[in-house]
Amino acid sequence: MLEYITKVNLRKAGLSGLFNLSMNYLECRTKPIKCISKPVTIMSEPTGDCNLKCKMCPRAAIDYKKQGSVDFEKWKEVMQKQFPYWHFHGFMGIGEPLLHPKFTDMIEYLEDRKVWKFVTTNATLLTDDKIKSLIKNNLNRMFISMDSSSKEMYETIRVGANFDKVCSNIKNLTNEIKKRKSKMEVILQSVLLKENAKDLPDMVRLASKLGVKEFRFQDIEIKFDTGWSTEEHAMRSNRSFFEKYIKEANKVGKELGVSVKFYNTSDYSLVRTKCVAPWNQAYIRWNGMITPCCTTLTHVHFFYGNIFEESFKDIWNNKKAMAFRKAARSKNQPKQCQKCSCL
Known about the structure:
Layout: H1 2-5, H2 10-30, E1 41-44, E2 53-54, H3 72-82, E3 88-91, H4 103-112, E4 116-121, H5 128-136, E5 141-145, H6 151-157, E6 158-159, H7 163-180, E7 185-192, H8 200-209, E8 214-219, H9 239-256, E9 259-263, H10 277-280, E10 281-284, E11 289-291, E12 305-306, H11 312-316, H12 319-328, H13 335-338
Helix pairs in contact: 5-7, 8-9
């Protein structure tokens, strides 16, 4: 959280905003069931639709036909009226954000609001026009999913994607960033699967070749035990098998000047006590449903309420929200928290 606090626009915040930010920082440490502060981070899912069918994605367990995209004007109105104190905005979900026809308009709106913003994307739709628009409107960070350095394995994992095209898109992005002297950060990320373990060192080499200076790896999230999202494929079930590839990837990173970070490789029997998501962020699905975080977005029993039908003030401390915070800080955490790979 401290990393993001340093990115706060102090002029935008004002005294009331700084008070809320300070109170939120305190509540992330004390973890009360009922919050005084409002979230400083908003996560949005522009669309529930996606152009790929990835092997480890929870979309395999949901009804595709019930997905859709948020109305831009309605989304903008909610941001304007309901969230006066938010400083950071992320776009991610079970859909591909760049599929939304108004995605670059969303970034432009957030730039006008002086909000620090990032997106997680598969980069298949990263056209030259989108690249120029995102740089122009100061997208601060882009996470790009890249799960193998091998064309065959990448296209096996990310069904529907073209490895060569995605690599070309990333290279065009980093070239344009350099040309325009943009401060946008580009970070490649990959889930850890026993199928791509041997590719880890070459994935770091690929990042360097594409002009990317950071690669993050994390274990898969097991939400519905579907496809490759199972214990059988997870790093935590094949820890000794991964060790030599992780060691070599770190070595390659140091040699090439690529920052290599491995997340969520800890003992999953431990209680996930570091999570502050229920206190410092709200996640808004495309249909307006509010959830605690991205890990719970496909579980309807965790939904707090609908931002298009209720005020956020009422949702933020309602019975469901407070019950989740109580469970999240306890030793008897929800199963989704126990299997979370975001810490």
